[in-house]
Amino acid sequence: TNTTGSPVTLYVAGGTVSSITIARQGSAFTTGLVSGAFQLAQNDSVTITYTVTPTLTIVPNEIN
Fold first, then answer.
1. Strand partners for 11
2. pTM for the model
3. Does the pLDDT at position 7 exceed 90?
4. Cβ-defined contacts of 30-37 (< 8 Å, 24+)
């Protein structure tokens, strides 16, 4: 869950991922992707289903 207080980009790479689901405002959306960059608003959550752990990198979208 993005609890940073600002939008972020989540990068998912590697591992053996079978699905990535993003939940926003009570609705969940399966992305259909197994890697890539995902924009997360504050309080969005991500569920990643995997058998080998992927690398996750979180980058803030705003620089203060």
1. 37, 57
2. 0.91
3. yes
4. 36/11, 36/12, 37/9, 37/10, 37/11
Answer whether 60's CB lies under 8 Å from 10's CB: no
Q: Mean pLDDT over residues 47-60, rounded?
A: 98
b/e per residue 24-52 (b: at least 16 CB within 10 A): eeeeeeeeeebbeebebeeebebebeeee
E runs forming strands in 3-61:
8-13, 16-24, 27-30, 36-40, 45-52, 55-60
Q: Which of 31, 33, 34, 39 is nearest to 60 (CA)?
A: 39
Q: Is 64's pLDDT higher than 70?
A: no
Q: Which residue in 20, 22, 16 sits closest to 39, CA to CA?
A: 22
